[in-house]
Amino acid sequence: MTTVVPGVVEVAVIRRVGRAWRVLTLERAQGTRSPGAWEVIHGHIEKGETPVQAALREVREETGLVPERVYSIGVNPFFLPKADAVQLAVAFAAVVTGERFRLSAEHVRGRWAAFGTARTYLAWPRTHELLRQIAWMLRTGDAGVTEDVLLVARPRGR
């Protein structure tokens, strides 16, 4: 029987530059899943972790960054044929202030890009939609009247 599993997180690390947003894009290293693909942060939810905890851990592990705020964006289902499972990727936007980051062994390059530019080379189609949703939701700098629902973490205590 096919199961449904909330097993991974997808996190767009973003920062404000003037009135526009930039997203951190990462190129996968050889010897990893999808080598050469450009993407945002993806990672497994570990046993005992909530999706928010997994998102914060993955951002820290893959970039060394600690977001000042994290927003819930949605859930993206996808099929894993080898496991005969529909898995759910819980999607987030993690807002940071600085532009400096470090790469983990999973990636060979990283760069900040305007959302429209990033959509021209990001490998996963659902990430394109994720960026459109983030741009609309945070068009005023925060989530406006939905801030109380969509803001899920303030790791820096602000």
Provide tags for this entry.
158 residues; alpha+beta; Nucleoside Triphosphate Pyrophosphohydrolase; eight-stranded mixed sheet; 8 strands; globular
Can you describe this structure?
Helices cover 22% and strands 41% of the residues. The protein has 158 residues and is α+β, with helices and mostly antiparallel strands. The chain has one domain (3-153): Nucleoside Triphosphate Pyrophosphohydrolase (Alpha-Beta Complex). It has four helices and eight strands; from the N terminus they run E-E-E-E-H-E-E-E-H-H-H-E.
What is the second-level CATH architecture? Answer: Alpha-Beta Complex
Shape: globular
**CATH fold-level assignment:** Nucleoside Triphosphate Pyrophosphohydrolase
How many beta-strand runs?
Answer: 8
**How far do the termini sit from each other?**
45 Å
Number of helices: 4
CATH homologous superfamily grouping: Nucleoside Triphosphate Pyrophosphohydrolase
Please estimate the helix content. 10-25%
Beta-strand percentage range:
35-45%
Give the total of domains: 1
Write the layout of secondary structure elements.
Layout: E1 3-17, E2 20-28, E3 38-39, E4 41-44, H1 51-63, E5 69-80, E6 85-95, E7 107-114, H2 115-118, H3 125-137, H4 147-150, E8 151-153
Parallel strand pairs: 1-6
Antiparallel strand pairs: 1-2, 1-4, 2-3, 2-7, 5-6, 5-8
